[in-house]
Amino acid sequence: MTLPALIILIGFLYLNLGHAISSGVSHADDAYMAIGSKNLAYGFGYGTTLTPDGSAGFVKYPAGYTTGPVLVVPVAAMIAVFGNKPWVPGVTTLLINGILIFLLLCIIHKSNLSISFMVWMIVWLLMMYNLTAGKFFEHWNAMLGEMPAALLSILGVFLVSVSNQNKNRFLLAGFVFGLAFMTKMVSLLGFLPVIIWLFILLFRKRDHRKEGIKNLLQVLAAFLIPLLCFDIYKLADLGPAGYLNNYREFFAAFSQWHDPATGGDRSGAGEFFSVIVKRFDTFGSTMGFSVAVLFLCLIIAGILILKRSRYPAVQWSYVLLSSGFLLHFIWWSVLSSGRIRYLLIGLLLGVTALTIIV
């Protein structure tokens, strides 16, 4: 990456640093996850002292942990080094986001697919900043998980689509998507288009089917590595009985999150369309622009990219990112509780897809 680009990136992160230091843990969920990192740093284990019913005790691997070990463990390491300071979780999270942006920009710069790397970088950072300014600004430094999960998903897409000279790109991409899943499970929706794409290539390039199967297996195997590592650690910590019980508690909590009686404003299948309309209204009132405008921009950008771009890698990057956004939007509209925060990963994928037109 060029020196001017690095200076711009450092300046961008500096804008967020003051907020990370001054605000500390500024969100209830942020504080909940930070307590888990503190417990891990002090040797109490991976868990929380804030039980769901408010009683005293320590709960290991609680189902309420919606942010995974990709954030919890590094923050715990920083707390162990610098102490239990209010700024440590935010600065650590911001540092992780900065590293991911740096890696992403290095991949784009090395691929040399954009007419002007500097123009693309500035446009992308401005759009990312504008999307998160205000209501979502805390996500740059809060332990909520959406921002690093989105950046990991974007990084995974570009590893697969534009890093053609890297022989290990499918292994790296699968591992990165695994980290995204271990940060925020909903980021799996951004991984599904990649798997579908690799399946399509198996049938389109029959002469290279053996290589296509190898690529698909590499992505899937690498995706499982972070999951298996954490589960082995959990199994060793809890034992077989505790491990199985932990998963039973998780699936029980997961079913409640998606239960119409407890999952937000969904009151029944008969009101499906009214719920969709309400989601659209929520989006418009919160984001300041209509869903229809966003979809229209994506369609126009897609037509221009697919018809005029000379690079298949650019076209596939757009297809994978926009498909990830679409899956996130469908999930948020139909299955989630409707909080706009839960769409943030999808929105960041969509915004990145728009910038590819540069």
What topology emerges from the helices and strands here?
Layout: H1 3-23, H2 28-41, E1 47-48, E2 59-60, H3 69-82, H4 88-111, H5 117-132, H6 146-162, H7 169-183, H8 188-204, H9 209-257, H10 272-287, H11 291-308, H12 312-334, H13 344-355
Antiparallel strand pairs: 1-2
Q: Major sheet: order of its strands?
A: 1-2
Anisotropy-based shape: globular
Compute the gyration radius: what is it? Answer: 21 Å
Q: Strand fraction band?
A: under 5%
- What's the mean pLDDT score? 86
Rounded to the nearest angstrom, the distance between the terminal CA atoms is 18 Å
Largest sheet: 2 strands, antiparallel
The low-confidence parts are: 259-270
Helicity, in percent?
over 70%
Q: Order of helices and strands, N to C?
A: HHEEHHHHHHHHHHH
Q: Tell me the number of helical segments per DSSP (H or I, 4 or more residues long).
A: 13
SSE-based structural type = mainly alpha
Number of strands: 2
Compact description:
This protein is mostly helical and 358 residues long. The chain has helices at residues 3-23, 28-41, 69-82, 88-111, 117-132, 146-162, 169-183, 188-204, 209-257, 272-287, 291-308, 312-334, 344-355; strands spanning 47-48, 59-60.
Account of the 3D structure:
The chain is mainly α. A two-stranded antiparallel sheet has the order 1-2. It is globular, with a radius of gyration of 21 Å. It starts with a helix and ends with a helix.
What attributes does this structure have?
single chain; 358 residues; mainly alpha; two-stranded antiparallel ribbon; 2 strands; 72% helix
